[in-house]
Structures
1.
Amino acid sequence: MCGIIGIFNHPEASNLAYLGLYAMQHRGQESAGIIATDGKQFTSHKGMGLVADVFPEETIAKLRGTRAIGHVRYSTTGSSSLENAQPFMINYSLGTLAIAHNGNLVNAEETKKELVYRGSIFQSSMDSEVIMHLVACSREPKLIGRLADALKQVKGAFSIVFMNENELIAARDPQAIRPLVLGKLKDTWIVASESCAFDLLEAEYVREIAPGEILTISERGIKSYFPFPAAKPTHCVFEYIYFARPDSVVFGETVYDVRVRLGRQLAREHPVDADMVIPIPDSGTPAALGYAKETGIPFDLGLIRNHYVGRTFIEPRSSIRHFGVKIKLNAIRSILKDKRVIVVDDSIVRGTTSRKIIKMIRAAGAREVHVRISSPPTDYPCYYGIDTPTRKELIASSHTVEDIRRYITADSLGYISIAGLKQVVNCRECFCDACFSGRYPISFPGLEQPAQPSLF
Ligand code: AMP
């Protein structure tokens, strides 16, 4: 769970990178960083926290040059600390190279062990540093050969922007698990995790970086390389369900449209008589709209979100019940009182949030609470870059839907089926559904059965 951006050929490259990161803040809130270059000097600034806090105006002014790459981080592997903040930069035999990486490598630990055995010294616990060591150690004469060489040795999800003295380089794993898109603003090329960054910069969406593509951008133009054996794409379907911004075009489709269709499909699979459909904001909103459109049951907002909740807040000593959820959401009594309510959310992970929210809705006077979830039960952890708890902590891994209904105290509970999900997403593409099916498309140490294609 990270967001990346690369800017090539703009007098205010670092400012554009900053704005792009701002648009992609939802992809990571732990740390933010930008490295800029004029082709000779590289300047870097990284910090813990949100983009707006890490980059005061005077800091951006110091990041000079017409090229920049940036990163927002939500740690999945590696601890949350400044040394693990990206972008990350090395000096090696061919000069300087900076990287911003989204995705998890599943063989990073074993590759790192080998590298350390051969004498590499690591500065961080990020798996992205493994890629940089592989590039530095490669015997290929040119950078493109070294990148291909390094990336062939890693397994897992990578959407990456690299930057050296002359080029901006985008790379995406052959299964294209995480998104990565190419945009253009007059003579400026932009690479970003999500197209919502282009909208803010008034850049046009050009295309996705293709599965297995390494794209070099230099003053001579753009050039594509496909060094990896072709593989069937397995895009992360959870980007559609929860992670990406609804206004982004991801894997060729606007996320909002997919979420509304998920809500419609959910309604077809789990209809129920009720007075209103309400979302758990913001993640459940488009699916709730879809559910309401499909059934004709009125859509309403029974829960209001406080958008200014920071990462930490001071809890009162004398316990206020459900404090954690209350600080983020509040129920509107006049809307919910005596009503039969359908509550739509995108997923249930541990079940603790849903349980608290349902209690809140009941306390506001709702007569019935029917929960509808626009994803199948989250049964397995993700190893490719979504932050999920261990399998034991996932409520669906050890409980039936009826158990979960009882735990969250709903009158009824319905999840969309895997078949329904498959029908909704663009079926020309292929998706990874391992978090629902346990069919992991890329093998890794400790995986009980061999890698399997997804059900898509
Ligand atoms: P839980 O209380 O653990 O069941 O959390 C469920 C809520 O977490 C839902 O409202 C989801 O929108 C949200 N959610 C799902 N996946 C993630 C994730 N990887 N990181 C943060 N929040 C998530």
2.
Amino acid sequence: MADEKPAVLFLGPPKKHILAGLEEEFTVHAVVHPKDLADDLVARLAPHLRFVAVGGPPGGADGALMQRFGKLEIVASFGVGYDNIDAQWAAAHGVIVTNTPDVLTEEVADTAIGLLLCTVRELPRAERYLRAGEWARKGDYRLTASLRDRTVGLVGLGRIGQAIARRLEAMRVPVVYHARRPRPEAPYPYFPSLIEMARAVDVLLVITPGGAETRHLIDAKVLEALGPNGILINMARGSVVDERALIAALKERKILSAGLDVFADEPLVPQELIDMDHVVLLPHVGSASEPTRRAMERLVVDNLVRWKRGEPPLTPVPETPWPPKRA
Ligand code: 8YV
């Protein structure tokens, strides 16, 4: 009987494969924005809701939301980044959080290299030049900067950071990195100080988790240290970069250019950035291919289905390990 299926609350923009997968095993209640969660739905679900799926912003689960569901056991979030979920609160209240790592690593690394090349070699702008008929009218597109004489400083050397570094190595581009802790197994020079790394390199490529700890890590001082030949690539979260400071640095030519896949207030992008022809702007497409997104969606479903069957979750986040660590 359909009613025997347990309830799952899905928060966020509809995701075809998540919803189809969940519907096989659960009674799905879908709400795009947590603020639209009606009190009567909460009242109906609260006595028994054990499962929540989050399909990405504006969906999210903070402590106040999770607290409304006293029987909540697991929140399965779409995306490797889970800054829209309060994993600390979850950990403190015995709720498991899962994300979707690994299945997107190579895709996001590919996109990062694409964005880097587009930015350094001005490829989108050169294409606009051709499409506008300027090649025939004005002659060859101007000569650009090059990746050949650059060192890339990775801000973050997690799974995706390492996949980017491997690509850069194959491209014969020197790599250094800054992270909270050195990774002894990584064959790249480590900079404990971000400012010092910014001074030493001419590309900063940001691929670190979002959230309070990394908010505005890239500020006016770091951009100043990167210098007038410097290029900033952000593949992480808009929150990691002080967007006002970046706009000022670009306007004043304190850095050369920027390639951005993420923004502070998505999907809104400051008009000042849109008006700049020398920056490359992508609508958060790092992982956005059909097969990769399908695999991410599948992993959200699989985490919930396994938990429902009494099996361990596949990809719990480090704050909520499974089995739980003893205090
Ligand atoms: C998704 C991402 O676009 O995995 C992440 O952390 O940023 C992307 O893959 C995002 O999660 C969509 O909400």
